[in-house]
Design brief:
Elements (H helix, E strand, L loop, with lengths): L11 H7 L3 H13 L8 H8 L3 H13 L3 E3 L6 E3 L2 H8 L1 H21 L3 E7 L2 E8 L14 E2 L5 H8 L3 H10 L11 H14 L2 E4 L6 E9 L5 E10 L10 H15 L6
Antiparallel strand pairs: 1-2, 3-4, 3-8, 4-5, 6-7, 7-8
Length: 267
């Protein structure tokens, strides 16, 4: 009798089976599902969404509640994410150091430019806002800290894509998932935009998401010359008698800030 056929060693299926951790997968599935819910979900809703049985979900939810990754409502019928994952992410030393270095520079920019600014990094197919500073005035436009913003239809996303290696850019675009309200662009439109950004070194354009706003975005470059982050200001021009810094002035200020935070190659 011939032995049963086996998948070739080293094949994707073989590797996936070798390192399976079903319990971990269940927990991660629950966390990822709850991360998309504003009001949380009941246990029955979680079971239905994940296609798991009651005992699997009950045990895993109890452990996640016990470890404080998930919060149970006072009535005990709904589950939401706690802030523990957010706190853990901000304990990560390299990210902490980067944010600690960036915030004073961002604060100086906001005070001089009288505009808000935010810092984004690539995260699982889109961008994550890791730092944000409001302008000093009584009004302005800002992006909430911790927000996920689009990769392919925002100034920050275009700048992040423009300053990557070709292979990394392809990987990022492959991982991209649509966000709410995303504006569809063709591959040709994206390629033309990225080429223009590379030739200028930054992007300045009317916002694709709000009237009266001009997005200005510069890359924060790592030692290899690739973008590790994007710094962006949603510029709003005053039309009253107050004389604020001009768009050209603000663009130069943001350029200077991004240059100070970039890690330039040694010559």
């Amino acid at each position: 009798m011939k032995p049963a056929a086996q998948a070739p060693s080293g094949s994707p299926g073989d590797e996936a089976d070798r390192y399976r951790a079903p319990a971990l997968d269940k927990g991660l599935d629950i966390l990822e599902l709850l991360s998309e819910q504003k009001e949380g979900l009941t246990r029955a809703e979680i079971m239905k969404a994940l296609g798991r049985n009651a005992s699997e979900i009950y045990r895993m939810l109890e452990r996640l509640v016990a470890r404080q990754y998930v919060i149970r409502s006072p009535g005990g019928d709904r589950y939401t994410l706690s802030l523990k994952l957010f706190a853990l992410a901000h304990r990560h030393p390299p990210m902490n150091r980067f944010i600690a270095e960036a915030l004073p520079e961002m604060q100086r920019f906001a005070e001089r430019a009288e505009q808000s600014c935010h810092l984004t990094v690539y995260d699982r197919g889109n961008l994550l806002v890791i730092a944000q500073v409001d302008g000093p005035g009584t009004w302005g436009l800002s992006i909430r800290l911790g927000s996920r913003v689009g990769l392919v239809d925002t100034a920050s996303g275009h700048v992040m894509l423009a300053f990557q290696s070709e292979s990394e850019r392809e990987r990022m675009l492959t991982e991209h998932t649509k966000v709410k309200g995303e504006i569809a662009l063709t591959n040709e439109q994206i390629a033309a935009t990225l080429e223009t950004i590379r030739s200028h070194g930054y992007l300045r354009q009317e916002s694709a998401h709000a009237f009266g706003v001009t997005d200005v975005s510069f890359p924060i470059l790592g030692p290899s010359g690739h973008a590790i982050a994007a710094m962006t200001t949603p510029y709003m021009r005053r039309i009253d008698s107050y004389v604020a810094p001009s768009l050209d002035d603000v663009t130069k200020m943001l350029d200077d800030t991004a240059q100070r935070l970039s890690m330039h190659r040694e010559t």
